[in-house]
Design brief:
Blueprint (H helix, E strand, L loop, with lengths): L8 E5 L2 H15 L3 E6 L4 H12 L5 E6 L5 H6 L7 E6 L1 H13 L4 E5 L11 E5 L5 E5 L5 E5 H6 L2 H12 L1 H14 L6 H23 L4 H7 L1 H18 L8 H13 L5 H19 L4 H14 L5 H4 L3 H10 L18 H12 L2 H4 L2
Parallel strand pairs: 1-8, 2-3, 2-4, 4-5, 5-8
Antiparallel strand pairs: 6-7
This protein binds zinc ion.
The site of zinc ion (ZN) has 7 residues, from α12.
Length: about 375
């Protein structure tokens, strides 16, 4: 059995002072004294500086690395042998760089996400740029602790958080594909990873449905449920760690987003693109009878409530581009069986499906 690394600290904090105090208590408890902070430009750099000042008297060595270009090449040239802890402070770029740097230097990693726009704050995968600016998913170190400054995440505004929710909800689509691969190709499926990933996403999905029924606004939902969203995203990462792959959180909807990135350079943040991919692929699944029409209708209501794209124009893609992306999508990860293996990937057929989704009154009516 694989060894599974799950952080034993998850602290949700409400001020920079609280964050510094908790962090200092933690490094004292664990006897860390040579700390490498990895962060990005301001405001994250300023937050890291403030933390650095607070921590200064409690450690032997302290250095902040500011990431300009979050790439594999950048991480490979980082010199970290004199440190005993890597701390990522910032959004996806800082966290992904730090957890991959910790991985290749064989050091423990602490995650301090100041912005949440995807499901990577506590996952064993880093997405970094490789040659020709192509993004690759790499194995990375799970955090041993998470310190989440809620006040900073709230300040970042709803756009990035909604993108994070989009990435989380896409677990429901990913699990469909994993189950399909388990049946169709006998691929190993981890029941506990499925349970955790599915429930993490369902918990937020169901809460959004409640808010819709109660006529409460998206702003209210995001404000009142930040803790639930963060904890569900953490659980989603833990599901990936248990599975030993990204399967519980990445299926055909991610392949569509990867294809959009590779073919057209991307239109929207990752979580927004996978939410759109989920919308399209869930419609196709409902047409094939893998999921119910009701499931698709519910998903549409939830995505619209969040302001996530459910039309071509809201993603900024043309129908022709989307056809190309759908046909290309399985090649972005050819080892993975998904519902794409069940679709006739011909232009005419895909075009008809998209016409039904985006142009018929039944589905395109607001
Ligand atoms: Zn994702």
């Amino acid at each position: 059995m694989n060894s599974i690394n799950i952080p034993d600290k998850l602290k949700l904090l409400n001020s920079n002072k609280e964050m510094a105090d908790e962090f200092i208590t933690f490094i004292k408890e664990q006897s860390f004294s040579k700390i490498a902070f990895i962060t990005t430009k301001t405001p994250n750099h300023l937050i890291t500086n403030e933390l650095e000042v607070a921590v200064f008297d409690h450690v032997e060595k302290l250095k902040t690395f500011q990431v300009i270009n979050p790439s594999v090449a950048y991480v490979n040239q980082l010199q970290l042998p004199e440190f005993d802890l890597v701390v990522g402070v910032g959004g996806g770029k800082a966290i992904d760089t730090a957890k991959y740097a910790a991985h290749i230097n064989n050091l423990p990693f602490v995650s301090i996400p100041t912005l949440i726009s995807n499901d990577g704050i506590c996952s064993p995968i880093s997405v970094l740029k490789e040659k020709q600016n192509r993004y690759v998913s790499l194995g990375a170190t799970m955090p041993i602790a998470l310190f989440v400054p809620m006040h900073l995440i709230e300040e970042c505004g709803e756009e990035s958080l909604v993108s994070g929710v989009g990435d989380l909800l896409s677990n429901l689509s990913a699990i469909e594909d994993w189950k399909l691969a388990s049946k169709g190709k006998n691929e190993y499926i981890d029941d506990y990873a499925v349970m955790i990933s599915e429930n993490a996403a369902l918990c937020v999905f169901t809460q959004i449905k409640n808010y819709i029924l109660q006529n409460k606004s998206k702003e209210q939902f995001l404000q009142n449920n930040l803790k639930m969203i963060i904890e569900s995203i953490v659980l989603s990462g833990i599901a990936m760690e248990i599975a030993g792959t990204s399967r519980p959180a990445s299926g055909a909807e991610h392949l569509i987003s990867h294809a959009v990135d590779e073919l057209f350079g991307g239109f929207k943040p990752h979580g927004v693109q996978v939410a759109f991919g989920m919308y399209v692929i869930t419609f196709i699944r409902s047409e094939l009878g893998y999921v119910s029409k009701e499931m698709f209708q519910e998903l549409r209501a939830v995505l619209r409530y969040l302001g996530l794209p459910t039309t071509l124009s809201s993603l900024g893609i043309t129908k022709e581009q989307l056809i190309e992306a759908l046909i290309f999508a399985p090649q972005t990860r050819s080892d993975r069986m998904t519902v794409f293996n069940k679709i006739k990937l011909e232009e005419k057929h895909i075009s008809e499906l998209l016409e039904k989704l985006f142009e018929s009154k039944t589905y395109s009516a607001v």
